[in-house]
Design a protein that fits this description.
By secondary structure, this protein is α+β, with helices and mostly antiparallel strands. It is 19% helix and 42% strand. The protein has three helices and nine strands, in the order βββαβββαβαββ. It has a seven-stranded mixed sheet with strand order 1-4-5-6-7-9-8, with helices on both faces. A two-stranded antiparallel ribbon has the order 2-3.
């Protein structure tokens, strides 16, 4: 296994990473209170049926990868190779206006999970953020992607907020809202 910075030549091969999301549980989000006294309660609950959701790179992600790898945009793209095939990808982009390094995408091929690749990749992003004097590394997950939330929590990311309308105004009904995470670097 070899983790390295990606190159423009890797761009087409990155689509081969199977980023399927699989989970039997989700984080149930409940709104408490009203107006400025609103709060949220998250609770792990079983899904009605096992979630198996394809998670291919979308057009926006592909464009960002092309921009970063081509040098038109700042960022860090790490790739893990095994037997000359890409098996993991991490994309991070500095947001100097916010003082953060955003973990834009992290995916590990389905067959290579639970071997520490995602952890090692995040641990390589953290020093890159520190080198740029950025305060936290930020990430976003969906309440339906419990494995990603558990990984971030394990790596000392703190849950800092939710967005129930990011993808539609019905996400809570679909059991999927966005959770914001920060790993302070001080």
């Amino acid at each position: 296994m070899h983790i390295r910075p990606a190159t423009p030549a890797d761009l087409e091969r990155l689509n081969d990473i199977d980023g399927t999301i699989e989970s039997t549980d989700y984080l149930h989000l409940e709104r408490l209170g009203e107006g400025l006294a609103v709060g949220w309660k998250l609770e792990q609950r079983p899904l009605r049926s096992k979630l198996i959701e394809a998670n291919p790179l979308n057009d926006e992600q592909k464009f960002l990868l092309k921009q970063i790898l081509g040098g038109a945009d700042e960022g860090l793209v790490l790739i893990a190779d095994h037997d000359d095939a890409p098996v993991a990808l991490a994309v991070a982009q500095p947001r100097p206006e916010l003082g953060t390094m955003d973990l834009v995408d992290l995916r590990v091929d389905y067959d290579m999970r639970r071997q520490g690749l995602a952890t090692v990749m995040i641990y390589q992003i953290i020093p890159a953020a520190k080198d740029q004097s950025l305060r936290p590394v930020s990430a976003q997950t969906r309440t339906s992607n419990l494995p990603a939330s558990k990984l971030l929590q394990k790596l000392a990311f703190e849950m800092t907020g939710v967005d129930t309308h990011r993808h539609s105004n019905h996400d809570m009904v679909k059991e999927s809202a966005t959770i914001f995470w920060y790993a302070p670097l001080e």
